[in-house]
Amino acid sequence: MSKPVNPIPDGYQSVTPYLTVEDAAAALTFYQQAFGALEFMRLTMPGGKIGHAEFTIGISHFMISDEYPNAGSTSPTKLGGTAVKLHLYVDDVDASFAQAVAAGAVPAMPPADQFWGDRMGVLIDPFGHQWMLATHVEDVEASEFQSRMDAMFAGHGDCE
């Protein structure tokens, strides 16, 4: 009798981000330098582009490929931006932010303490993906979130 197959492979979570970029090989190098990513699988297409690769940052799995617009896979740079943000918890957001900028990321918002209890900064990687780096610095009761947000926006009018 054969062992049943786990419907979610060991080491994976229910949701795995799949990134599409113009140069997946360069992106993998950037993610290694910026975030300490570890690549563990790469499939190369005829012609040299990456058809599929997988890597981890901490305990989180990611998948990545070069863009293939004819197959519906387009990078953020071709789309003019991305609607998806990747939130990455780190031990020291200021050090990690500086490391990512040194590796080539563009700062969009420097690290600052946020009302929900995280110190967070936002970066755009060289491939158009937006990363929110954060370190949790304060446990805030969920019942306090709305009043803290209201206080932050007091006097700012409509923020849309």
TrEMBL record:
SUPFAM superfamilies per the UniProt record, alphabetical: Glyoxalase/Bleomycin resistance protein/Dihydroxybiphenyl dioxygenase (SSF54593)
* Coiled-coil blocks: none
Q: Which residues form the VOC domain?
A: 11-136
Please report a single Pfam family linked to this protein.
Glyoxalase
Domain of life the protein comes from: Bacteria
Q: Please give the InterPro entries that the UniProt record associates with this protein.
A: Glyas_Bleomycin-R_OHBP_Dase (IPR029068), Glyas_Fos-R_dOase_dom (IPR004360), VOC_core (IPR037523)
User: This chain belongs to which protein, by name?
Assistant: Glyoxalase
The record lists the organism as Methylomonas koyamae
